[in-house]
Structures are given as structure tokens and as C-alpha cells.
Sequence to fold (259 residues):
Amino acid sequence: MKSRLLSPFWQHLLAVVVSIVAGLLGLAPANAEIIVDDFTQPAEVTEISTGVGTMSFKPVITEHVGELDATREIYFTASLTNPVWSFDSALSTPSMLSAELQGHTRTGSNSAIITFVSSYTFSPIDLTENGANNAFLIDFASHEGTEPPLFFRILARGSSPSESFAAFFFNLPISDTPFTTVIPFTDFTLRGGGPPAPDFSTLRLTLLTIDFFFLNPSENIQWSAELDRIRIGRIPVPEPSSVWLGMVGFLVLACARHP
Fold:
């Protein structure tokens, strides 16, 4: 049987592609993902008092949460309205942060505001893990209802009061199946306005807060959310190995047809 050898051109091209693949695999950042909370520790928010048009709730504190060994506080606020609600970790559903709003009754003529909040305090840390991480990843088990919150927000604060930043996610998808919301570090700006995109690699953050924020929702709103995890990691992108190995396979087939 006559052997078929690749021409010098195809040999060179295949060698170049293999070299690129090896280089990309070598440059791929190490996995430095941080699990902020996987909601395995139970906690439930309950009302303790009411003011004029405002409900006050004592934060429920949980120690040693997640890989940041954080102190977590979850709490609920309502201004100028009396809502029907629930908010807990690992009680309504195991290993989930569960929030529910089943209507509300306004108590004033001004804007009604409702928030569900989970806050984390921890020792100063570089959340980028030397540049390996570039985003917050919020894993939802579900997000359902007649209308979404005005926005989902993450607040981040450093050791100095001037190091206070916020990022907002509007139009949170309504879905009864799991999905992940990605909020890049580059989406953050100074709270109150200012230069965009702080350099998180130079900051040592000590506080993270996430919240669902409702402004004047319908009084008959039916809404619920379940969070599976809060993570810090990389924005998902196609793996170089998959893309380039696919190209290598294509070239091998092409080479076999064109010796």
C-alpha cells in the first residue's frame, strides 16, 4: 500500500496550530473561584417592630460563611407599605436563599420601597486572586413572578470609606429553570457616581452586599427567587482547548484529503 505523507505546507501549518494550542493552554489562568455563599447554613428574617410607614427588621447574623469565612447578615426592609413576604436561607428549600413577595398594601402617597438583602463582612482580601477572577457569578435556581425587581445590585466596600462601589443588573430574567447572572468587575462605579471600573486587584475589600430592590411594584405582585450560590470567578468564555482542538481536527481531515 502506498503511504500518504503530508506536504511540507500542511506539515508546517499543522505544527503552527499545535504550537498555538499548547501556548493557549499554558496561558489559561488557574481556577481561583471563590464561593461566597452556598446557603447551607439556616437563617430566617422576622419582623421585630414597625414605625410610621416603615418596617424595621433585625438582621439575622451567621458566622463563618463560605470560603471568605464571612459574617453574613440577611434582612428585609419595607418603606411606606405593608408587604406579605418571606426571606430565609436553607429553610424553605435546602441550600438555597429563598425570597418571596406576595403582594403589599401602600401606607403612604410617596414611593413604596421593598428590599431583600444579604451582606457579608470579611477580612481584607484581593477578590481577583492575583488577576485570575474578573466577575461575580450569581447562580439562580429560579426567578419567577408577575414582575421583576427594579434591579439586582451588588455593593462592594474596601477598608476606606471612599472605597465604596456598586454595580446594577436591570431586567433580571424571569425563569423557572437555573441560570447564572454575570456581573463583571468592570461594571462597578463609585457609589454616588464617579470614575468607572475600579481596579479590584489593587483593592482589599471587606464587605459585599447583594440585594433585590423594588420601587413601587404592583400591589398584587407575586414574586419569588431562589439563589443557589454566590461566586467570584471568571466570565465564562469558550475554552481555548475546545476551539483550537476543533481546528486541529479540521486540519487533520483536510490534510488527509490533500497530501
